[in-house]
Amino acid sequence: MNKTLPKKLKAKCSDFKIPIDKKIWALNVPTTRMKIKTLNWLFENPFWKYKQKWYAISPNEVIINKKKYPNHWRRIQKADLNYPIDIMKNDKGYWELLDGLHRLAKAKVLGLTYVKVRKVPLSEVKKLIKQF
Fold this sequence. Notes:
This protein has helices at residues 7-10, 21-25, 59-64, 70-78, 101-109, 122-130; strands at residues 31-35, 48-50, 53-57, 85-89, 95-99, 114-119. By secondary structure, the chain is α+β, with helices and mostly antiparallel strands. It starts with 6 loop residues before the first helix and ends with a helix.
């Protein structure tokens, strides 16, 4: 299975090849609030796997067509908004999601204006990557 970041995403995203979510969760980063519209670009891009294809569907596609993508729709519904979304400002200038896309999608579905986030410094992410 090819997990190569598509061209469309390379322009805005970092190309991390390693899972760092559990290490991100352990960081002592304060929680704040952010307007969801600041992260709107994330809803339009194919970050999620569908069947055997990586980077196949976007959160907007799942929200619009719940029956076609029941697994992601269930994950959106079950997402716990008590946990903040982990983001970082990448070296391309975009707020990039590190963890919590299903939570972000749930916030959008619920019509929320703000979402809880932890703004993880890029320098901290780079340190975690070096540990692998």
